[in-house]
Automatic annotation (TrEMBL):
EC number(s) per entry: 4.2.99.18
Compositionally biased tracts (Polar residues): 76-85
GO process annotations (BP): base-excision repair, AP site formation; nucleotide-excision repair
UniProt cross-references to Gene3D superfamilies, sorted A to Z: 3.30.310.40, Helix-hairpin-Helix base-excision DNA repair enzymes (C-terminal), Hypothetical protein, domain 2
SMART domains in UniProt: ENDO3c (SM00478)
CDD domains linked: ENDO3c (cd00056)
Superkingdom of the source species: Eukaryota
Protein name per UniProt: DNA-(apurinic or apyrimidinic site) lyase
DNA sequence: TGTCGCCCTAAGTA
DNA sequence: ATACTTAGGGCGA
């Protein structure tokens, strides 16, 4: 089968508004494929193979069309979690030229409506640590992924790494997702719909494919979403201000330290699913449902909170429900309504695979003023390398840099005991624990 | 309410 | 080489 790419179209885009080289590999999406020896990224979205590349002034995009499988009907465009093809596609049947619809899809998926530079400025003004860390990581934007895909992807993410999660998601697409195109050796499928993963033999098949204990979670969640919930159940948990593609935006409710009511509700409902705890639920809320205040707290973020925000040391406190809510609420109060976006910037800055951003390291003495105390500490000054150069990671030069990457450095700072933040003092105790309801 | 052992796998580490 | 740990958790006791 043959096919052809469209010409490249382009959108004006600065790297501070969107850096695809960071955004597409920072662990929020797992399906984007970097073409070797090229700056090009590919992924199937809404049944179409998209291709992206970027320079300092523009984002370039094109799509691929197979001869035997022309542009899919627009009925596939609404989210896969809705197996209803008749009610939700009203806005998608408009007779727009192809490139016009492509740019709508891209602007929606890439979440381009907000001004990211302005958000970085606000977070930096509120938080010196953010300002310091974010310098080398501009253009990290939260994508609007399909809620169902986000749900399954983050069920896969437990006790796992980005590389293997990506492989598992790829297997789901190849074995259960609709075929889209073949280019060279590479076969492109879209992500499977819920009912495609609810078959009787799915669990055993996934186990044989190396999913481990996640196989049961995926199968059980697919059954619940496709058979035991109303159609559109998952999409209805979306932030009304950030709805699924093709749905009208509505006004949202009021922001609170623990998040808006709609966010709390979505978070809670997701906990009913198998294999979904607080962290996975927050990932889906943030990256699939458009709730910007969702702050997923994993072991990594927990370490960041202890290291840079004076939460109790790990030897004293473990990451439990109370500390989870305390950390998330703290970041919501610090960064505001889009706290989850800021969180992702710091998370990315600590990812091992981005060690090449810490190209040169030299020791200097810096006076850092934090709250009342002025502490003289020894710190590292990192100089960013070009953001558009996805080169092979430079070898970690010495133990010091290795520690930075692992997030185990900076035991040098000693914080006053009074300023350590304790979970019980900073958050209202929530009674919404998944386990307590059982 | 908090803590612990267990669940799967593959790559990295000692 | 072989055992152990880690990698963006969740669940039940």
């Amino acid at each position: 089968m043959t096919g052809v790419f469209s010409e490249w179209y382009k959108l004006p885009m600065s790297l501070s508004e969107l850096c695809i080289n960071t955004t597409l590999r920072c662990g929020q999406s797992f399906r984007w494929q970097k073409i070797p020896e090229s700056e090009e990224w590919r992924c199937v979205l809404y049944g179409r193979l998209f291709s992206l590349k970027q320079d300092s002034n523009h984002l370039y995009y094109r799509t691929y069309s197979s001869d035997a499988l022309p542009t899919p009907p627009s009925s596939v465009l609404p989210s896969r979690a809705t197996s209803d093809t008749e009610n939700n596609d009203g806005k998608l049947h408009t007779e727009k030229p192809g490139d016009d619809q492509l740019v709508s899809i891209l602007k929606h998926y890439l979440n381009l409506s907000s001004n990211l530079s302005e958000l970085y400025n606000q977070w930096s003004a509120q938080d010196p640590n953010f300002k310091k860390k974010a310098a080398a990581f501009s253009g990290v934007r939260i994508l609007r992924q399909d809620p169902w895909e986000a749900l399954v992807s983050f069920i896969c993410s437990s006790n796992n790494n980005i590389s293997r999660i990506s492989q598992m998601v790829e297997k789901l697409c190849i074995h259960y997702g609709p075929f889209v195109a073949t280019i060279g050796e590479r076969v492109y499928h879209d992500f499977p719909a819920p009912d495609a993963l609810a078959g009787k033999d799915v669990e055993s098949k996934l186990r044989s494919l190396g999913f481990g204990y996640r196989a049961k979670y995926i199968y059980q969640t697919a059954v619940m979403v496709s058979q035991e919930r109303e159609k559109g159940w998952l999409n209805d948990l979306c932030n009304p201000e950030s709805p699924a593609f093709g749905i009208e935006a509505k006004a949202g409710d009021e922001m609170k330290p623990e998040g808006r009511d709609g966010y709390r509700n979505a978070h809670e409902k997701l906990l009913e699913l198998q294999g979904v705890g607080p962290k996975v639920s927050d990932c889906v809320c943030l990256m699939g449902l458009g709730w910007g205040e969702s702050v997923p707290v994993d072991t990594h973020v927990w370490q960041i909170a202890q290291r840079d925000y004076r939460f109790g040391k790990s030897s004293q406190k473990t990451l439990n429900k109370a500390t989870y809510d305390a950390v998330a609420n703290h970041f919501r109060k610090l960064w505001g309504q889009e706290a989850g976006w800021a969180h992702s910037v710091l998370f990315t800055a600590d990812l091992r695979s981005f060690a090449d951003r810490l190209a040169t390291t030299k020791k200097v003495d810096v006076k850092v003023k934090e709250e009342e105390s002025e502490v003289k500490i020894e710190t590292e000054v990192k100089t960013a390398v070009a953001l558009t150069a996805p080169k092979v990671e430079a070898e970690v030069k010495n133990e010091q840099e290795k520690d930075i990457v692992k997030g185990t450095a900076s035991k040098k700072r000693k914080a006053p005991a009074e300023s350590i933040i304790h979970a019980g003092h900073t958050t209202e105790t929530r009674r919404t624990s998944k386990r307590l309801r059982r």
